[in-house]
Amino acid sequence: MASNSRQKSASSASRASRPAASKPSARRSAGASRPSSARGGSARSATSRRSGAARPSRSDSPSARPSRGDAPRSGTPSTYRPNISSRSIGDIRRSEREMRLRQKAQKSISRLVAAAAVAAGLLALGLVLYFSPILKVEDVQVSGSTHLTDADIQALVSIPEGATLLSVDVGGVARSLERDAWVETATVRRVFPHTLVIDVTERDIAAVVEVMTSDAKAVQPWAIASDGVWLMPIPEKDSELGASISPQIYEDAESVLTITGVPFGLIPEIGSTCTDENVENALSILNGLTTDLADAIVKVQATDAESTLLTLSNGIQIAFGTADDIREKERVCLQIMEQNPDKVAYINVRVVSKPTWRAV
User: Fold this and answer.
1) In the CATH scheme, what is the code of domain 134-202?
2) Is Ligase among the key words of this record (predicted)?
3) Distances (CA, A) of 42 to 14, 73, 76, 89, 293
4) 55 within 8 A of 44, measured Cβ to Cβ
5) β-bridge mates for residue 31, sequence order
6) 294 CB contacts (<8 Å, ≥6 apart)?
7) Residue 46's closest CA among 66, 29, 27, 59?
8) Each residue's pLDDT tens digit, 283-340
9) Three-state secondary structure string covering the chain
């Protein structure tokens, strides 16, 4: 009896010393022959059999649960979850950005090198052509010039011998032409391979002004443009100087009106602008008229601006006065002549609100 009691007590003590959660492992170590599906499981079973003691299961111990970075348990699908931090993403983006910047810089440098090479080639080609006889100026064509003769143009335009189209200073040629009183504007064009084209816009004669000579013994006719620029003194047609100028000058001078009665002391200068107020008033009247009255004027007496007198081709004289109220004065004159056909000899519109007229 005493022996049986000691055996029971030993069995009870053995069971009490075993962990409560190791029953399944104890059964497997006591002779369970179920095969393990993982290499790690076989090793643990062998160890348990050698030690003869049960070890707690992974599933029963919280500390033994696999972390996210551990290898997957046997029999479960494998899922790779990379552990990428925000810093590593920033580093990747920064590297990519730096790479793009390097590539962009390399492309820019390549473009600059290519552009420099092209520019150098063009410069070399330009220098060759600049002095090359291939583009030598062989023909100069002038258009728009009627008051300047070919001799006048040649005197104004100086093209060096052997000059090429690229070496000619076209701006300088244009400025040289514009220094002449007849030339209002000039443009010079290159027409490759050998032609220089000059387009001239000339001033027209607006009137011929009778200017007293310095000795007050004679009258010298001067051509003046509508903008008040003195063009030239008109020589006698049969004189040596008259034979050397363009015939167009005489044709225009005969077709325009004459400004007479200019006080003594007026000294015109070719290319300068008229500053005489009497002549200026007469030109303002002529430029301001818009009807047939302007074409009918053949003479303007400009002794004084207040008493400027117009003479028409039909003999009617108009005391026009200053260039104020040009349109109204013009309207009144036309109305008087229309209401009294072939009866009017003189009209006074110096005070346009009180016009008067005198019959033949």
Assistant:
1) 3.10.20.310
2) no
3) 26, 14, 18, 42, 130
4) yes
5) none
6) 286
7) 29
8) 999 999 988 899 999 999 999 999 999 999 999 999 999 999 999 999 999 999 999 9
9) CHHHHHHHHHHHHHHHHCCHHHHHHHHHHCCCCCCCCCHHHHHHHHHHHHHCCCCCCCCCCHHHCCCCCCCCCCCCCCCCCCCCCHHHHHHHHHHHHHHHHHHHHHHHHHHHHHHHHHHHHHHHHHHHHHHCHHHECCEEEEECCCCCCHHHHHHHCCCCCCCECCCCCHHHHHHHHHCCCCEEEEEEEEECCCEEEEEEEECCEEEEEEEECCCCCCEEEEEEECCCEEEEECCCCCCHHHHHCCHHHHHHHHHCEEEECCCCCCCCCCCCECCCHHHHHHHHHHHHCCCHHHHHEEEEECCCHHHCEEEECCCCEEECCCCCCHHHHHHHHHHHHHHCCCCEEEEECCCCCCCEEEEC
For residue 199, the cross-strand partners are 143, 187
Residues 6+ positions from 28 with CB-CB distance below 8 Å: 34, 45, 48
The 10 Å Cβ neighbour count of residue 55 is 17
**Separation of alpha carbons 176 and 140, rounded Å:** 15
Instruction: Please write the tens of the pLDDT for every residue from 197-210.
Output: 999 999 999 999 99
